[in-house]
Write a structure and sequence with these properties.
The structure is a single chain. The chain has 270 residues and is mainly α. It has one domain. Helix content is 69%, strand content 4%. The chain starts with a helix and ends in a 9-residue tail after the last helix.
Length: 270
């Protein structure tokens, strides 16, 4: 079985990459849009823009997946092979971030319904007018939690020599992450094209990294390879399989949405 998968997985990866490149809109930003298209509504007024061109994802998802990508990279660099879930005090802060994300998302969705359908849900008031700054900040907090939890779960599954200490274990760790992401968010809010161009691709990296790690964990479990790796080189097949499955999932969602809407733009409203 191992010998067969060593051939099948790379071939499937090449097929998935080629299909994604062929089907997605032209240009690098077009490919990035196709990733965002699979996981985000892409409503124009709820997105940041490079001049008149919106980013691949809305403000909330830009914050979420940029933050998740940065969190994964930071933890991989500073806390390699750590598999402990965030310490209780840090987990509590991450829960607060999640609640802020959920609350602002619910308020924003309610506002969208009222804007789209006149007279809808008049008995439920909006507590405040939603805006892209709040969407970005609450998405950023959510991304930190997603990245930290998935990083620990992946390490718990992958490594034979696991460091059981929390990957995000102290206020200093969390403070460093928050500080970095606040600087990133300020850069996004500045509207500078020199910042927004890289952010477009960092957010896409966040999506692909999260999905690839999830599917890599699934692959290891199916192939009964849990806790059997010493380094990334030994793990190339599992990581390739994870990326391939992530691309296939994105392709399927893209094609279904394109079939339903007939456009690479936002979900039609009204």
């Amino acid at each position: 079985m191992q010998k067969i998968t060593r051939w099948i997985v790379p071939l499937a990866a090449l097929f998935a990459i080629a299909a994604f490149i062929y089907i997605s809109p032209p240009g690098l930003l077009g490919k990035a849009d196709a990733v965002g298209y699979a996981i985000c509504h892409r409503i124009d007024e709820r997105s940041f823009h490079i001049h008149a061109r919106q980013l691949p994802m809305c403000a909330r998802d830009t914050g979420t997946f940029t933050s998740a990508g940065v969190t994964l990279l930071l933890l991989a660099f500073l806390k390699p092979k750590r598999g402990g879930m965030p310490a209780k005090k840090i987990a509590l802060a991450l829960v607060v971030f999640f609640l802020a994300w959920a609350f602002d998302g619910a308020n924003s969705y309610l506002y969208l319904i009222k804007q789209t359908y006149e007279g809808a849900l008049p008995q439920i008031p909006n507590i405040y007018i939603p805006n892209n700054t709040l969407r970005l900040l609450t998405g950023t907090g959510m991304g930190m939690g997603m990245g930290a939890v998935l990083y620990a779960a992946f390490n718990q599954t992958a490594w034979k020599e696991l460091d059981t200490r929390p990957a995000l274990g102290t206020w200093r760790d969390l403070g460093l992450l928050i500080g970095i992401m606040l600087l990133v968010d300020l850069g996004i809010l500045s509207g500078s094209v020199y910042i927004l161009y890289p952010i477009a691709f960092i957010s896409v990296f966040g999506v692909l990294a999260l999905l690839s790690l999830i599917f890599s964990v699934v692959w290891m479990m199916i192939m009964r390879q849990e806790n059997s790796f010493f380094n990334l080189k030994e793990m190339w097949l599992a990581l390739t399989a994870g990326l391939t499955l992530a691309l296939i999932m994105l392709l399927v969602i893209d094609l279904l949405r394109l079939l339903m809407t007939g456009t690479w733009g936002a979900f039609p409203l009204g």
